[in-house]
Amino acid sequence: MSPNSSVLVVCRDFKIRGDICRALSGAHFTTHEAEGLQSGLRKFARARPELVFIDADIPDQEGYDLCASIRDSREGRRTPILMAVSRAESAVELANARGASDCILKPFDPVLISLALVRLQNMTVSKFIGRRLDAARRLFRD
Predict the structure, then answer these.
(1) Which of 15, 17, 26, 131 makes an SS bond possible with 11, Cβ 3.0 to 4.6 Å?
(2) pLDDT in tens for each of the 142 residues of the chain?
(3) Can you tell me the distance from the alpha carbon of 67 to that of 82, in angstroms, rounded to the nearest whole number?
């Protein structure tokens, strides 16, 4: 992942979405914005972001559907997805079942979203390096 990784931010509230994007920009992320399921799918396909943030409370639980749709796509299979969910345990369970990599509880601070996305990014890089090292070890053993 590059130093200026791109993040798709999906949140129906314009002000909150703007606050999140400003915090992410301050942490050197390039941001792409969407407000719902359809615009989120279009932006994901077009921008191919390295990370995704989804507010689960976009209308009709579409946040969970968006997460599952991204996760089910070839391009989104390994994309880290952070979901903002209510404090209900069932919301966290549903987010995990639909493919979220991690959850952040509402209400949230946009700066905490930046930190959580950096953590997810680092975990993803570590997994990638681990897989590459394992492959190299197998080559040298054979």
Answers:
(1) 17
(2) 445 789 999 999 999 999 999 989 988 899 999 999 999 999 999 999 999 999 998 876 689 999 999 999 999 998 999 999 988 889 999 999 999 999 998 888 888 888 888 888 877 666 556 666 666 777 777 6
(3) 9
Residue type, position 6, single letter? S
50 CB-near residues (< 8 Å, 6+ apart): 1, 2, 5, 6, 7, 79, 80, 121
How big is the CA angle at 120 (ends 2 and 58), to the nearest 5 degrees? 105
CA distance 5 to 13: 23
From the number of C-beta atoms within 10 Å of its C-beta (0-12, 13-18, 19+), residue 126 rates as exposed
- What pTM was estimated for this model as a whole? 0.82
Distance of CA 53 to the CA centre of its chain: 4
Determine the 3-state secondary structure of 39 from DSSP: helix
Cα atoms found within 13 Å of the Cα of residue 69, Cβ hemisphere only:
17
Three-class secondary structure of residue 80 per DSSP: coil
